[in-house]
Amino acid sequence: GDTFVFDVSSASGGITFPDSTTQTTAASGGTPAGSDTEIQFNNAGAFGASSDLTWDGTYLMSDKISSTASTDLNLYGGSATSGKITLLNGFGNHITITPSGTGDIKLQADQIIVGDDAGVADAIITTDGAGDLTLSTNKGTNSGTIVITDGVDGDISITPDGAGAVEVSGA
Length: 171
What we know:
This protein is mainly β. A hairpin with a 7-residue loop joins strand 7 (73-76) and strand 8 (84-87). It has strands spanning 5-6, 15-16, 22-23, 38-43, 46-55, 60-62, 73-76, 84-87, 95-98, 133-136, 145-148, 156-159.
């Protein structure tokens, strides 16, 4: 194959091509578009930029990410085999959060709210198959549990931890 030599030691520097010619200058691409930190892109042969997509040297930031009208939007954590978030295309479709392998999904907040913004629709928490639904605290360690057993005539078990008690009070 052909050999290209990058000469950075001489005063002229440059790239020496296989035909022994040397290129010591590079063509300029023009003036960048947009403001500082905005990502540059080819906009019909000219530099384009958008304040909606920026890079500060550490973080790639955007307040608007979308897919084309006919595709889902997938966000991956490092590679296509890691966990992902999928926003399914179309009105009324689901948002799917899929951990990698046996990974967990963590919702880290003081309060998790389930339901619509208007607060008028019933909220449902369910399993996506034939598994039981278990509610516990402290990652299941030193915790009582509530287990809703899957299937017809399945039991609902309330099991306190240690000397704990099940308390039911009424008005």
